[in-house]
Amino acid sequence: MDDGNGLGQIYPSLQKSVYLYGKLDELTCLIRTGRQSSHLSTVVMPSFSNLREAEISNLINYLSHEWGDQSILPITSIREQIETCP
Ligand code: HEM
Question: Rounded to the nearest whole angstrom, what is the distance from the C-alpha of residue 29 to the centroid of ligand 1?
Answer without folding.
Answer: 11
